[in-house]
Amino acid sequence: MEGLIGFLGCGKYFKRKGAGDFKVLSIADLNSIIVPFFLEYQLQGVKSFNFADFRTVAEIMGVKGHLTTEGLAKIQAIKMGMNRGRLS
């Protein structure tokens, strides 16, 4: 996981007992590095739908839409439909 920082050129690794988390904390890095990476190396199956939702949220946040009531409501609606909330 720590190697992802060098490979992608962004993110931080947080060690936890028995595990670890790779996190990208910059919205700019999400939109300029992470999203293009997964557009080139596409996910398969239901994860591709979750990525499409994630991309929409990253775009909203990239223009600071999450700071408005409408933008936050849209993000919350998208979140409710992701992962286990997805109907099919």
Write structural notes for this entry.
With 88 residues, this protein is mainly α. It has a domain at 42-88. It contains four helices and two strands. Strands 1-2 form a two-stranded antiparallel ribbon. A hairpin with a 2-residue loop joins strand 1 (12-16) and strand 2. Helix 2 (27-40) runs antiparallel to helix 3 (46-62) and helix 3 (46-62) packs antiparallel against helix 4 (69-80). The mean pLDDT is 93.
Chain-wise SSE layout:
Layout: H1 3-8, E1 12-16, E2 19-23, H2 27-40, H3 46-62, H4 69-80
Antiparallel strand pairs: 1-2
Helix pairs in contact: 2-3, 3-4
Note the beta-strand portion: 5-15%
* Backbone structural class: mainly alpha
Q: Main sheet, how many strands, which sense, barrel?
A: 2 strands, antiparallel
Mean pLDDT: 93
* Spatial order of strands in the largest sheet: 1-2
Percent of residues in helices comes to 55-70%
Topology order in helix (H) and strand (E) letters: HEEHHH
Alpha carbon gyration radius: 14 Å
Note the gap between the termini: 31 Å
Number of strands: 2
Enumerate how many helices there are, as a single number. Answer: 4
Low-confidence stretches: none
The shape, in one word, is globular
